Amino acid sequence: MLYHLLPMMAEEFGALRLFSFITFRTGGAIITALLICLLFGGRTIAWLRSIQGEGQPIREDGPESHIITKAGTPTMGGLLILISVTCSTLLWSDLGNGFVWVVLFVTLGFGALGFADDYIKVSKRSSNGLSSRVRIIVEIVLAGAAAFAIASLSGNELGTSLAVPFFKDFLPNLGWFFLGFAAFVIVGASNAVNLTDGLDGLAIGPIIICAMTFGIVAYLTGNALYSDYLQLPAVARAGELAVFCGALVGAGLGFLWFNAPPAMVFMGDTGSLAAGAALGAISVVTKHELVLAIVGGLFVLETVSVIVQVVSFKLTGRRVFRMAPIHHHFEKKGWAEPTIVIRFWIIAIVLALFGLATLKLR
User: Fold this and answer.
1) How far apart are CA 222 and CA 98, in angstroms?
2) 37 vs 78, 86, 303, CA distance in Å?
3) Number of H helices, E strands in the chain
4) Burial environment of residue 166 by CB neighbours within 10 A (0 to 12, 13 to 18, 19 or more)
5) Under a CB-based contact definition with an 8 Å cutoff, are residues 36 and 86 in contact?
6) What's the chain's average pLDDT?
7) Which of 25, 53, 269, 334 is 20 to 30 A from 360 (CA-CA)?
8) Would you give the DSSP letter of residue 168?
9) pLDDT category, 59, cuts 50, 70, 90?
């Protein structure tokens, strides 16, 4: 909104030209989302606690310590993230940019789905929410609509092409198959983040790291000069998503203030599904879907650990890990929760740096 209003007055107040720069507005989005979280976080948590009573239902098959340490903690804290990201994005973004609206649609759509899932869990006092079938169908519909919109907004052959890291001229055009691939990326990213959200601060840290990384990616791919120098696929107007990524970083930092061990609130599916889907959609817009698997490698690791555990148990009757996802495996081995969280953050940072390196290694 500020992008459309303030630069019009730049002739009288030259400093207002700053609002036309993506980098300045990204910084503004970070601060705005952070302040919204910090100012309203306490009240939001108090409200969630008042309506939820006993807080998030704890899984009976989860680590025994959780029954004691996490009982009574309210969930649906993702609402705070959604509100902060949405308000900050609407305030600082170019609202004439279609990519911004698509990513917001995905974020709020998956957030609403997560909210419904959380609400059922809390109201029925059960760790089981929406049925898997209903949830996956809604996710596919939302992701498919977003994929179609992204391909249409790209408006050229690049919109349905797949960029492969380390290869500057290899851009296979997937045609209509791109819609299925893009939907898979969005749904996969959403559920991978959801699986990671099992310890205080574990998911939000890598979300912040991924958002920062893709803020850089969006800015570079949307800038013709930088994309040409780095030999990246140039996606016109994708740079505006750096502002959205900034809003997600700020909201993540603000939420982490309350989610740091011991957590005062859990983000729940409301936040994890939304954040994961947003990152997936941004990777599709910027043509860095495969790089997301590197930058978000921690989310991939968590997902693979669940798949390996299930397949191994069904085929052999044996479990590879003491418990899946893998962060629970380390809990069972006796690692303290903050130790697991910080070490996983370190892994996420290393993977993000490696992902950024792929921008030049072509």
Assistant:
1) 14
2) 11, 12, 29
3) 15, 0
4) exposed
5) no
6) 89
7) 25
8) S
9) low
Helix axes 204-222, 268-285, angle to 10 degrees: 20
User: Of the given ranges (9-18, 51-60, 74-83, 335-344), which has the lowest mean pLDDT?
Assistant: 9-18
Q: Where are the alpha helices (DSSP H) in the chain?
A: 2-5, 22-52, 64-69, 78-92, 98-124, 132-154, 177-196, 204-222, 224-230, 241-259, 268-285, 289-295, 297-316, 326-332, 337-357
Contacts of 255 (CB under 8 A, 6+ apart): 37, 41, 77, 80, 81, 84, 204, 267, 271
C-alpha span between 62 and 80 (Å, rounded): 26
* pLDDT of 206: 97
How many Cβ atoms are within 10 Å of 104's Cβ, its own excluded? 21
Average pLDDT over residues 171-183: 91
User: So what's the pLDDT on residue 317?
Assistant: 87
Q: Which amino acid is at 221?
A: T
How far apart (Å, rounded) are the C-alpha atoms in residues 113 and 216?
Answer: 29
Over residues 111-128, the mean pLDDT reads 87
Q: What residues are paired with 161 via a beta bridge?
A: 173
For residue 161, give the 3-state DSSP assignment.
strand
- Find out whether 207 and 275 touch, Cβ atoms under 8 Å: yes
Angle at 25 between CA 83 and CA 113, to 5 degrees: 25
Q: Which of 78, 107, 113 is nearest to 90 (CA)?
A: 107
8 Å CB contact between 349 and 209: yes
Beta bridge partners of 173: 161
Query: What is the enclosing helix (H) or strand (E) of 206?
Result: helix 204-222
Query: Could you tell me which residues come within 8 angstroms of residue 263 by beta carbon, excluding any fewer than 6 positions away?
Result: 70, 73, 200, 201
Query: pTM higher than 0.70 for the full model?
Result: yes
More confident residue, 167 or 94: 94
Query: How many angstroms separate the first and last alpha carbons of the chain?
Result: 37
Quick one: how far is CA 340 from the chain centroid? 20
